[in-house]
Amino acid sequence: MVNQSKYKNVILYLIQEMDGKVLEGKKKICKLLYFVDFGAFEKYGQSITGDKYIRMPRGPVPSNFDNIIKTLEDTALGIRKELKSPIHENPTTIYELKKEANLDIFSKEEKEILDWVIEIYSKLSGKELEDISHSEAPWLAVKRNGEEIPYELSYYRGTSF
Known about the structure:
three-stranded antiparallel beta sheet
């Protein structure tokens, strides 16, 4: 079951720790959420957001992402779309932080996972994150786009915490 409060605050915290602004917003945040949730499941046996991830051509996508982002638009995030550029197929979505995350709702273990993902993955581009997610067992094991990626596949990622 999706934990909307944690979900929103994970997104806000990720953006906050990337200097309050994320280019390649949707792609990058979706991939970072995947690393957060599958990392948490791999290490502690449950995800942080509670969302389901769907196999799509550009990697795992959290199924409730668009709904959660819409709830953040008015109060916590500024969102704008930029025109296509030579390096991006689709218009780039840029997320800008308007309100900081509430870190009190996270357990010590959840905060460790968030900080680990930020340290390892936040400096990478959306394309680099896509490539990494495509090399991992959860994405590779599910063959058809549109199918749910089982969290249990996180145990085959080979992540060293």
